[in-house]
Amino acid sequence: MPSPAPWPALRVTYHVTAPTKSDLDARVESLLLEQTVELPRTALRDKFVLENIVGRLVSLDEIGADKHRAIIDFPIIATADDPAQFLNVLFGNSSIQEHVLLADFALPTDWPGRKNALPGPKFGAAGLRKIVNVPERAITSTALKPIGLRTERIAQLCALFAQGGIDIIKDDHGLANHRFHPFRERVHACQKATREANRATGRSSIYVPNLIGTPSTVLEQLKFAEDEGVGAVMIAPMLLGLPFLAEIAARHARVPVVGHPSFGGATRTAPELLYGKLFPLYGSDATIFANFGGRFAYSRETCGKLARTLTQPEIPGLTSSLPMPAGGIKYHQVADVLSFYGREVVLLIGGGLYEAGGDAALRTRVEEFVRNVEEFK
Q: Could you tell me the pTM of the whole model?
């Protein structure tokens, strides 16, 4: 039995599919080695590396037909207090193996380098609520879409939504620096429309542009958007990179960051872990995810666990952030959705509003949506 490791452990839970015991033994052994040393055990000559850097199996349990739960400890020092290396230790080479799913992880409570690697939300739920001036009730949100509209039309929609009382009006994640609505032109027009609507209504609605592109492009977009006075920005961390999200949140952004789930299904990672733990740990102040019963396949159980992980983080010192369920929610389902999530939520409804028809009908539906949220008891 090896002696206790000299530093805290990152405890990781994997779900491993294996038809036979020999397959299971080989796959667990691969997990122990691939995330740190990436060598067969027989090739390790250094006693210190063998006893302290290689993963340690904590438990192995059967959880279904040919499926097992493997809990493994890795030395936290292997992460080098770096946001990219943390992911490498968590689920680097093993993510290539089709029989493995990353199910959960627990950080050590005594990890001094945690904030260097994983900054957490800068604003969190409380900061975002302050910006939109919504201290208690659920927050309303919608998306500007689709790709192909001219800037003038997108700005008109933004004004309509803000005048109707929606708190957070964000770009759809597909709105990039397209020639029909260039980024700078769109941000300027939508921020102006929001500002003028707030002046008329007395509300504090915010416009949230989508930042997308190479790192240098995104940082330029962030500066421009902040100079224009936007209330928050949105990025898709799985498109741009979780470590880049950490850098944006910790070093660059002066406004909250909303995380979008696009490309999140391209990895075998449990959604409640990816969106509920990793997005906020890397700096997302609010996280969009697919709501149950919509056009995506997440269950009520997954959505409930995900939302609880965001609003009640288990990691000491981590600020709570806001869940933003989306993807098929209808405006008349407000009471049912709020009964499930409670008031610590941002309700993001897009298509359910646009289906109303022309601008007059759309405005009526927006006002009904806002009223339903504000009157929910």
A: 0.95
